[in-house]
Amino acid sequence: MDPGGSTTVRLRLRNTGDVVDEYRFEAVGPLAPWAVVEPQLLRLYPGTTGSVDLTFSPPRTPDATAGPNAYAVRITPTEHPEATTVPEGNLTITPFTEVRAELVPPTVKGRFRGRPKLAVDNLGNTKLTASLSGSDNGDQLSYDIHPSNVQIEPGRAAFVKTTLKPRQIIWFGSKESRPYTLAVQRSGVTPLDVEGTYVQRGFLPRWLATFLGIFMALALTFVMLWIAYKPQVRSAATEKLQEAGISTLAPSPSPSLTPEAPKAPSAEASAPSVPAATQTQAAGGDGAGGGGGSEEKETKAPEKTAATAVQKLATQDPGGRHICYRAFVAGEGWTDAACDGETAGTVGKETPLTALNVAVAGTKGTASAAFVHFPQSTNGNGHYNGKPWSHAADGIDNYFGSSKKDAPSLLGFTINVDDGGGAVCESVHLRNAGWQDMVCDKPGEGENFTFAGTLNNDVWIEAVKLKV
């Protein structure tokens, strides 16, 4: 069957016992959330046969895995519960492909280069293989795309780093906008084009060029005038002495008398006298009859963030790799910091997270981006909200998502570490889906980031676990 549709399987049951019995039916297995049994209760007399309908309605999402999917129905007799029967079947779900691409950010600025990222989401239920290329009108930009080929599992996303370089530098003048297109090409399918804009800035502003030209002209004019009208300076005093016959030779040296340096005045003599009342106020600030005591200012204790926790671990284990994190729970606020695989958030309360605070030690920093709920979605998925990745070095707080009132729920997030060889691992607890498997990125195989969570607008993250 195709995802998004429905199909029905009929199950026949015969009472081979000698008493009237009542049977309960329950769908089990991975397809159970999408299965409905009608009726759920069937009463049969000895030797009689009855039937129930089992209807499957898998959604058109990456969760509906393409290919054969096993299912089963648990049948429990009321009179003989020990005689439970579990017949099994197989449902083959047809594959479908759906791809979405988004530039983060859509507009980049720079004098010599721009570095946008292309987020490619596989919304289908089969692995996506695609190549990427860039183009623009007039061949004004060059493109360095890494990686140029991607393979994305169903429900996952890949971030492609792109470096744009203008072929001509604007030395003087105002900025210019250069539209460009990045294409996601799949075999036998029309390319998916994503449009962006590179704003190229001038190396020096136009007013500075005008100022330098005027300054150079004035400087050259001043030099020419100085050379043409340089004044002639001579000593008239020397000439008068020569006319009078007075020698201008220096007199012979005579012994010099150096006066004795005066002694420094004693501290008692030089220090001005200070009234006793003044000394008392200076010493204590609380003299008799002062009329009021000293004010005490209340100092608020600093907030204990993820960076506070990871710095403590780094002090205890200077050569180790650690990650600490805390979650912002909607309506409750920030949780305490958790570290190295501990749980941050709530489980089973159906309370979404809206932001995360992460800090690392021993990984040369971390970067991340939040995938959040999108009320205007037309395909049932969230979005990255046009926000770029946030970066932080070792021991520094990295925030992504939003802790503001009415902030959108956190559906997923992309995260990596910057040491080039180390991995980051994640597991999240999803609404109505429980804990997901711990997944790690693979820097040695080109996957230097991992995506946690889901793309579904109706499923949010309740808690997280992170490791490095």
TrEMBL record:
Residues 284-293 have a biased composition (Gly residues). InterPro entries: ChW. The chain crosses the membrane at residues 207-229. Residues 294-303 have a biased composition (Basic and acidic residues). Keywords: Membrane, Transmembrane, Transmembrane helix. Residues 247-283 have a biased composition (Low complexity). Residues 247-308 are annotated as: Disordered. SMART domains: ChW. The keyword Transmembrane helix applies. This is Hydrogenase expression protein. It comes from Streptomyces aurantiacus. The lineage of its organism: Bacteria, Bacillati, Actinomycetota, Actinomycetes, Kitasatosporales.
